Structures are given as structure tokens and as C-alpha cells.
Amino acid sequence: MALIVHKYGGTSMGSAERIRNVAKRVAKWARAGHQMVVVPSAMSGETNRLLGLAKELSPAVGSPELNRELDMIAATGEQVSVGLLAIALQAEGVEAVSYTGWQVPVATDSSFTKARIESIDDTRVRADLAAGKVVVIAGFQGVDEDQNITTLGRGGSDTSAVAIAAALKAAECLIYTDVDGVYTTDPRIVPEARRLHTISFEEMLEMASLGSKILQIRSVEFAGKYRVPLRVLSSFTPWDISIEEEAKSGTLISFEEDEKMEQAVVSGIAFNRDEAKVTLLGVPDKPGIAFQILGPVADANIDIDVIIQNVSHDGKTDFSFTVHRNDYARTMELLEKTVGPATQAAKVVGDARICKVSIVGIGMRSHVGVASKMFRALSEEGINIQMISTSEIKTSVVIDEKYMELAVRALHRAFELEQIPT
Ligand code: ADP
Ligand code: ASP
Ligand code: MG
Q: What percent of the chain has pLDDT over 70?
């Protein structure tokens, strides 16, 4: 019998009826003799509702000074979930105890709204497990060294679950969600998307980092660092299916590159609407310019994604990069007030209506012409590419947001992903 971590997302926890179903499923695993730790998210819509309330009260919400208070508010969503789930488990006749992040504690840094987990104390959890209890731990949250409540960024319950699984050296971490696995792309955009039985860890890492919302990127990083066996599966199968059947359903994130596996060149398509592009026009093209521009942006704790610098004319060049849309206003202000004047830029322009679409596949390592096939498919749809970024196993393009769905569908067809055998 093994120590297993289950994570249930917002939709899976979305109503009393669904929480009862989660409890029945967890109880089934506990009765089979497994030691169970369960990490739920807030009920669906709840985090948005809580953050929306805060926004109603102040236009300053979104600026870093208020992030501590936002975390205080947002963390309550998961606190409700753990209490409800523990009660539902008890109603199923299973002993259960609920904890918030700070009670465990899950120690994080102090980057409110996007904190990183630093360590997890497993003493209390282990004692409960040894006493035969199911332990229910709030996802998405932790506590910093000054006892402030922190949250891990949207979708952060995935990361809580995997980090807890790593800390407890769990045999497996099962991520239960509202789809039955990882698909070639978001099935909400492309109904013909196919479920992948396995996806390599590297591909999953790229998919998540390129915007695929199925798993938060940091959860995949944790799984890689600590080799946590990870599976994404549906919480909507009948709760009483056999454990054997359940344990092999969904998508396994695999750490082994199976040589024999028929590798598709491209395994998936990711997209991200959460970016914005900023450009400094007419900056002097001289050594140190990239640092002069991006240094202050990094110092302001703003993550930079795709970067492009044009060929220079008369000693001047244009320099563009993308940031998260939440950081767009701050970045524009920084460029207009400080960086632009300091670098003698002729003009600062921004565009928040862009998106990034990416193809991902470890098969790209050994095949040529994959990117050009991507560019052809986009050109056939009349889609203009604004920026390009590549790595060994992905190619991303930045395009006008209004073409996003068209681009994803065209690429899904061009790489014949709907023909992957199910
Ligand atoms: P949860 O609340 O369980 O964490 P999320 O909404 O965060 O669920 O993630 C699940 C959703 O991710 C799915 O409903 C689906 O629309 C979306 N998604 C995006 N990309 C993919 C993909 N490649 N495969 C499966 N689902 C995806
Ligand atoms: N409830 C949080 C969110 O909506 C965390 C999560 O669902 O993983 O982002
Ligand atoms: Mg999620």
C-alpha cells in the first residue's frame, strides 16, 4: 500500500454534490489501504469572485503594495474547500483532518500572488497519516517567514500537490481535473484534439510554460526536480470504478523517452493570451543597450518573455519584448518614464492585443522543416507573424490576438494531430 496525493481542481470541487463525489473517490482509495493526502482548489469561480470583490474596492488592486492583502483574501477559497472536503470524508466514514498552508506549514518566499515554495514540514501530516487519517491540505497557499499568508499564482494548487508529494516522497501524484488527460491542444478550442496517453516531461514542461493551463508550470518543474510520478486524469469518471482502471487512465507524464514509441514530430499546441508586447523605437544600437532596457524591467520583478531586436539603421534600432498582460501597464510606465528617456528612445509603443501560439515536440530535435511548415500553415490563413522564438523542442510565434483560434486550428490540422490514435 502506498502514499498517494490526489489533487482536485475547482470544477471538481464545484458544488456540494461534486465534493461528495470527491470524498467517495478518496474514501475508496483509503479503504484500499493507501495513505491519502488530498489537495483541493477553491470551488470553481471562487478565486475570481474573491479577487473581483477586492477590485471593486480599490482601483489600486493589481499594484504590488496590495498583493499581500490579495493573498489574504484569495487564500480563503481553498480554506473553505479543505473544511468541506474533510466533513464530506467524515460523512463517508473516513477519518480526515483539514489544514491551511500555514498550518502545515508550507513555507514560501514573500513574492505575494506568485510565491515560491521553499520547504514543507511533513511532521504533522506524517503523524496524521500514521494515525490512519486522510489529510486534506489547502492548495495554492503558503506562509512566508514573517507569517504572512502567500499564494502561489493562478493555478497554483497543482504546484502545492506536486510539492507535497515530493516532500512526502509519495508513490504518485494524481491531478484530477475536468478533462480526462493532457490533449494535443485545449479541447475547448479544437474539439478534434486527442488525448495523449503519455507525454514526456520535457514536452509537458514546454506546454505548461507556453501557456497550456492544464498544469501550472511550477508543478511540472517540481515533478522533474524530485521525480514525482505525475498523472492527469478525470474527476468525472464514476467514483466507484476500480482503482486499477483509474490508476492507468488519463495521461502519464513520463520521464523515460520510450525509443519504441512512435514519436509524432509535434505533440501539442499551446497558446497564451496573457501576454502584451512593448517596443522601444529608435534606440541607439550600442553595446549594453539590451541590459539598459531589460535590467530595470527585471529589477521591477517583471518577467520578460520573447525578445526581438531589429537590424540597425543609422546606428538606431527597435527593441521589442513581451511581458505578462498583468504587468503591461507597469512596464509601459517604466519604459515611458525611466527606460525610454535613459536610453534616448525615440518612442515607446505597446500592444496588449497579441497572443503567442507554440508548437511543441521532442521529435523536432531530429526533424528539419518543422518551423517552416508552421509558418506556411499560418501564411495560408493570412496570419502575420510579429515575433518568433525557438528552442530545441518548440517554436513560438507572436500574432494578433484575434487570429489565435484560427492559428491553433490551422496548426492542429497541418501537423495532423487529430490523427493521433486514441
Ligand atoms: P482545474 O480547475 O482542475 O485545475 P484547469 O481549468 O486549471 O482545471 O485546467 C483544465 C483545463 O485546461 C481544461 O478544462 C482545458 O480546457 C484546459 N486545457 C488547456 N490546454 C489543455 C490541453 N493541452 N489538454 C487538456 N486540457 C487543456
Ligand atoms: N484557486 C486558485 C486559482 O483559481 C488555484 C487553483 O485553482 O489551482 O487560481
Ligand atoms: Mg488548474
A: 98
User: Do 233 and 25 meet the contact criterion of CB atoms below 8 Å apart?
Assistant: no
Percent of the chain, pLDDT > 90? 93
Q: For the chain, give the mean pLDDT.
A: 95
Residue 35, beta-bridge partner list: 3
Candidate from 47, 100, 158 with most ligand 2 atoms within 8 A of CB, to mutate: 47
Distance of CA 322 to the CA centre of its chain: 18
Exposure string for 200-212, b = 16+ CB within 10 A, e = fewer: bbbbbbbbbbbbb
Q: Which domains, and CATH codes, for the chain? A: 3-256 (3.40.1160.10), 268-414 (3.30.2130.10)
Three-class DSSP labels, 195-238: ECCEEEHHHHHHHHHCCCCCCCHHHHHHHHHHCCCEEEEECCCC
Nearest alpha carbon to residue 89 among 26, 157, 13: 26
User: Which is the closest atom of ligand 2 to the Cα of 154?
Assistant: 9
Residues 267/196, Cβ–Cβ less than 8 Å = yes
Ligand 1 binding residues, C-beta < 6 A: 9-12, 41, 155, 177-179, 182-183, 185-188, 212-214, 268
Residue 260 pLDDT more than 50? no
The pLDDT of residue 420: 81
What is the C-alpha separation between 360 and 267, in angstroms, rounded? 6
H/E element, 254? strand 251-254
Confidence of residue 421 (pLDDT cuts 50, 70, 90): confident
Residue 129 backbone dihedrals phi, psi, to 5 degrees = -60, -40
12 CB within 6 A, ligand 2: no
